[in-house]
Amino acid sequence: MKQQFIETICLKNGSFQAIDWHQARLNRVFAEVFPDAKSFDLAEILAQNPCTLTAENATDRIRCRVLYDGDGVSVSYFSYHIRPVSSLMLVEANAIDYHLKFADRSALDTLFAKRAHCDDVLIVKDGFVTDTSIGNVALYDGERWFTPSKPLLQGTKRAQLLANGLLHEREITKI
After folding, report:
1. How far apart are CA 13 and CA 165, in angstroms?
2. Which among 84, 110, 128, 129 is least surrounded, fewest beta carbons within 10 Å?
3. Residues 9-32: pLDDT tens digits?
4. DSSP string spanning 79-142?
């Protein structure tokens, strides 16, 4: 069975957010995992699979999930729910590999199950802070925002903020 990958794209006010960043990540997956297959145009696929959900109001967001492998793609839409996080459990996971956005999140789910009384986990790999189970990390020192230089996954918003100079990479070690 071929590995499957996902792109989760925010649909806000009828417009897909950061589509170019998602396309770039999708292209990296094809180059690494499916070098003999032709990558697809994400904007074209989304245009062919329009959202049938309606947002409750003009500011609501909808989550678009694009599931794909080297042979095909499927698109589905869901309500967009932000899970509040106010506490994190530090967990070590030196063997984890999530450098591509794999559809199989079982390794992340296993780590998430270790959160005890906390809302999520803060993953440490080889002594370095990486990500939470659901996203990249940004820390503020009172003057600038920093993100770990060794994330598990280089997220699209992280890449965007780095490119715009609003976020800066730094090695962040476990204390």
Report:
1. 26
2. 84
3. 999 988 999 999 999 999 999 999
4. E--PPP---EEEEE-TT---SS-BS--HHHHHHHTT-TTSSEEEEEETTEEEEESSSB--EE-S
Residue 121 and residue 88 in contact, taking contact as beta carbons nearer than 8 Å:
yes
C-alpha pair distances (Å), 15 with each of 11, 46, 48, 63, 125? 5, 11, 14, 11, 36
Question: Dihedrals φ, ψ of 131, to 5°?
Answer: -145, 180
pTM score over 0.85: yes
Write out the two tokens for 141: 């020192």
| Mean pLDDT in residue range 33-40 | 95
CATH number of 5-79: 3.30.470.10
pLDDT: which is higher, 101 or 58? 101
Whole-angstrom Cα distance, residue 124 to residue 122?
7
In percent, how much of the chain has pLDDT > 70?
Answer: 97
What CATH class does 88-170 carry? Answer: alpha beta
User: Angle of helix 156-163 relative to helix 19-33, nearest 10 degrees?
Assistant: 120
